[in-house]
Amino acid sequence: MQNQVGTLLHKYDQRVPRYTSYPTAPHFGPQIQAEDYRRWLAELDPAAALSLYVHIPFCDSLCWFCGCHTKIVKRHRPIEQYLEVLAREIDLAADALGARRQVCHLHFGGGSPTILTPKEIGRLFTRLRRHFDIPAEADIAVEIDPRDLDMAVIPALARGGVKRASIGLQDLNPKVQAAVNRMQSFDETEEVIETLRAAGIDSINIDLMYGLPHQDVACVEATIDSALSLEPDRLCLFGYAHVPWMKKHQRLIDEAALPGPEERFAQYMAAADRLTGAGYRWIGLDHFARPGDTLAVAAREGALKRNFQGYTTDDAIARIGFGPSAIGAMPQGFIQNTAAMPEYRDAVARGELPIARGRALSGDDRLRSAVIERLMCDLSVDLGRIGEDFGVGGAAFADEIEALSGMCADGLLDIESGDSGPVIRITAKGRPFVRAACAVFDSYLNPGETRHARAV
């Protein structure tokens, strides 16, 4: 069995995207600029609800595993200055929209959004509600680092309408925590979750990681057991992506302490077994949810979506991103703000939307995006039906079907004949390799690109 796993990893654990979008972010380009985005915003259906993402790019300490766009600050003044620019960007986007729009999803990410003070959180919500109709039933979520959290922030989040919190836990083993510069106790994590629930923020997600330095199966299982005692509604199980050529601070991690491919795989599968054994439904590649959670319901009903926050119930026609590096998704294509704070600040000061790059979607992009999203979300896709929806024949993916023959022979997927064309179904054995199957449909991917993390 061990040799078989090693063989599969050697063949399919390649560097491929996470497929939180298609085309993926590395294929955005400078051909899309602020004027294109402004036009796209104006063209949105005024009756359709929108999704908003607000990026807070600050932390008070650096986790060496981090792949996010963030900056370490020891003084609060840079955060105050940033919020002034962010408020102006919100004004600019609202002006381009031309009318007050309803919001169905709002996500605060980072960085550490809870680095803001209670008053700053209140002002930010006020600014957003000045331009957008955010009803009581809107899904409002925030990412939280429990370490040294000012508990006064939690009531401010609740007053703003936050219903769901994602708590970074990663791993509770002190040796692992020291190796990635993130010391965090179970007690402080538990206290934050109890305070959130007491404030009415009772939908709790816990983020875990595998593949960190010094981790082994026993270590991962112990952390999961502790996490389960907190009774979260969802858990996300992320594989550490070691890309020090992109994230230079990852060079601080001792590569000799990183688990090898087979050990990583063993950690992933042991974690999945523990979580499903506790009654959580396995969602797609790396999310787990209680059967009654909205994410699990969406998965059962074939309505699950995938975006830059991972698996989601967010089905808004457009997602507007605020803050440096934030990515937006429009019916017409993708856009991304500049990541550099000086450029972001200067663009907003000129009265310009701070767009650095983007991608207009072609018909083929939309077709392949639909295929990849269904594979990632449902672990199956009816190519014939999707082909009909996009006006192409059932044989449109003949080359891709041929390219998948090896995965089929290895028992990672089945290819069946549907009413109008091939149907691909990822097997239980193949679930960990679903990104490798998606990569076959990626017309932009250059095999072996080092910008991506391993598939498993």
Overview of this structure, please?
The longest helix has 21 residues, at 77-97. It contains 16 helices and 20 strands. With 456 residues, the protein is of the alpha/beta class. The protein has 2 domains: 22-322, Aldolase class I (TIM Barrel); 362-447, Arc Repressor Mutant, subunit A. The mean pLDDT is 93. The chain has helices at residues 2-12, 34-43, 77-97, 118-131, 153-160, 174-179, 186-198, 217-229, 261-277, 294-300, 341-349, 363-378, 383-389, 398-403, 405-409, 434-439, and strands at residues 50-56, 58-59, 71-72, 101-110, 132-133, 139-144, 164-170, 203-210, 234-239, 281-283, 287-289, 305-307, 310-312, 319-322, 327-329, 333-337, 355-360, 380-382, 413-417, 422-426. The chain is globular and about 60 Å long. Helix 3 crosses helix 11. Strands 1, 4, 5, 6, 7, 8, 9, 10, 11 and 14 form a 10-stranded mixed β-sheet that branches.
Short summary:
This protein has 456 residues and is α/β, with parallel strands linked by helices.
Key terms:
single chain, 456 residues, alpha/beta, TIM Barrel, Arc Repressor Mutant, subunit A, 2 domains, ten-stranded mixed beta sheet, three-stranded antiparallel beta sheet, 16 helices, 37% helix, 20% strand
